[in-house]
Every structure is written in structure tokens, then in C-alpha cells.
Amino acid sequence: MNPSISFKALKWEDIYPSCLWHIWLNRNNNNINNISNGVSIITTLNKAAEFKYLTGYNHPPLNIITIPIRWQNPSRDSFKLNCDSAYTNNTNTGGLGGVIRNNNGKWIVGYQKLTNVISNTHAELLALETGLRVAVQFKLHPIEIETDSTKVISLFDKDHQIYDHLISSCRWLMTQLGTPLLRYSFREANSVAHLLAKDSKKLKSINKTIIHHTPTQPVEVALKDDAVGRQYFRLISEEVCNRLASMGNINAVQNSSTFVKSLSFDPNGIAGRVLCRSIAACEVLDNAGYNNISGFKVV
After folding, report:
1. Ranked by mean pLDDT, which of 3-17, 153-167, 210-224 comes out on top?
2. DSSP per-residue codes, 240-265
3. Which H, E and C letters describe 38-85, residue by residue?
4. What is the pTM of this model?
5. Taking the domains of the chain in order of start, what are their residue ranges?
6. What is residue 17's three-state secondary structure?
7. Where would you tag: which of 38, 64, 127, 271 has the fewest CB atoms within 10 A of its CB?
8. At CA 241, angle to CA 238 and CA 243, rounded to 5?
9. Which of 42, 46, 51, 43 has its CA nearest to residue 6?
10. DSSP class per residue in 167-227
């Protein structure tokens, strides 16, 4: 390797980590073998150049977009369940929280629970299951469901050995509610459930579901903000926006290039059904006059 060519593009930030790495390797080698060799400058530079050329591919810049976020009212004569959890890994406990509101944003019922969990995903699934049980108990349907956990939504598309019993329980409860729609929600639009979950960590009793028929003090401001349609703004990549749109997030659907492309390609065809598999996308399509695309339901 010709140093004048291979080292020409190297900068100090490329060389410095390689120097530290080879000093460490050389010290260990000397100590283990009881020798006193020096660090090879050429080897150090060669390895720095190799690493730069192998990993220095210039990825195309991300297309960053700004999307407005707000809590979306459910359809007329429907309810909406927002659920969340707050996981504490050093105690393996999770605070569960959720709220069910009507299409005017009015509080119908909320719940809190402190329980033992093994992971954050476990806590999120329990928050969903508890919310579904509350909805069944009070016969609140038709209902839409939102969670800010992409992991929970993805689990419904595949089997999972650890959480399979919980997923099956959620599926069964959903059938009692008419197989409702499960969507992803940004944290900003899920703030009432988040605050309830966070506050649940203060509960004294464990594994007991607390039902609230009126809003609790910690969520009053967030509840009013949602009711008046307060907007938040977030910068995300177009790729992430498209992925969240596929999980039913209405805010993402309205800004998704994948959604737009599927419309221009074949709004009533297979591509439309795959790329716009979320019910949110389908609702927009329906409003535009494309009525042949079915929604994304957990079945």
C-alpha cells in the first residue's frame, strides 16, 4: 500500500482511535509475552486507512420532515383507548395506565395498576391487556386503540414465545370488542396515558386495577390540551414517517410519501392494500373516494 495514496485522505479523527487501539494491543502483547516491542506507525496508519475505506461509505442524507402531532378524536359514536406503561428495571415493576374517551375527547374511564414485569415490552402489553379488560367490563365499543410502543404492534404480526399468552389474551379481548383497530401513537399524543402510568408507580398495592370515573389531578392539563387539539411538532426522517404510517399513525399517514406514491400508482390494487394497510390510511382513501381498501385489524 502506497502511504502517499492510502494516508492522504486520513484525518486526525480517523487516526486517533487507531493509535489508541494499537497502543493497547501492543501493551497487552508485551505484557503477555514479556517483550518490549514498539508500536508500528505504518501498521497503525494502514489499519486506520482500511477502517475508513471499509466503513466510510457516504450514505445519502436523510430527508427530514416536520410533522404536526396531536391527539386524534375517534370516529363518531366510537371510543378511543390510549394505554402506556412506566417500567422500572431495578425493581422489575411496571406502572400501567390508560384512558378511554369518547369522540368529543370526554373522559369516560381511566385505570391504573402497579404490577411485576420482566421487561418494558411486558409492561406495555399488560397496559394494553388491562385497558381491553376495562373496555369489555364497561361495554365500551366500537373502540379504537392506541399505544406508543412500536414493539407491541409488531408482536401482533408474529409469534413470540415469551409473550404469546399475553398476545392471545389481547386478541381474545379484542374479539369481544368487535376486533378494534390498533394504531401507533406518538408520545405527545399519548400523554394522558403516559402520566397515568408514571403516577401508577406510586401506588401502594400491587396487581390491583384502580378505576377512575373522573380525571385524576396529574392528567387534567394534558386532557384539556388533547380536547382543544393542541399541536406538537417533531422532526423525523421520511423513512421513519412511512414506517409509522404503516402502523396506523394518522399524523404520519398525512405526511407519508409512501402513502402518496401508492395513491398515484394503484389506489385500489394490491400495492395500495400493502403500503396503506393501516386503517388511518384507509380512512383517508375512503374520504378521497377509494372504497375498496380494507383496514388493518388485529385478527
Report:
1. 210-224
2. HHHHHHHTT-HHHHTT-HHHHHHHHH
3. CCCHHHHHHHHHHHHHHHCCCCCCCCEEEEEECCCCCCCCCEEEEEEE
4. 0.70
5. 7-59, 70-254
6. helix
7. 38
8. 115
9. 46
10. HHHHHHHHHHTTS-EEEE--GGGGHHHHHHHHHHTT-SSSS-PEEESS--GGGHHHHHHHH
More confident residue, 49 or 293: 49
pLDDT tens string 168-219? 999 999 999 999 989 999 999 999 999 999 999 999 999 999 999 999 999 9
The domain made up of 70-254 is a member of CATH 3.30.420.10: yes
d(Cα 122, Cα 127) in Å, to the nearest integer?
Answer: 9
CB 268 within 8 A of CB 289: no
Amino acid of residue 28: N
Q: Cβ-count burial of 36 within 10 angstroms (0-12 exposed, 13-18 middle, 19+ buried)?
A: exposed
| Span 216-267, pLDDT tens digits | 999 999 999 999 999 999 999 998 999 999 899 988 988 876 544 333 222 2
Query: How large a percentage of the chain has pLDDT more than 90?
Result: 58
For residue 142, cis peptide bond before it (omega within 30 degrees of 0): yes
Average pLDDT in the chain:
83
- Phi (first) and psi of residue 73, to 5 degrees: -65, 145
- With cell 402520566, the residue in question is 195
pLDDT at residue 277, rounded to an integer: 35
> Distance between CA atoms of 119 and 93, rounded to whole angstroms?
9
For 27, residues 6+ apart whose C-beta sits below 8 A from its C-beta are: none
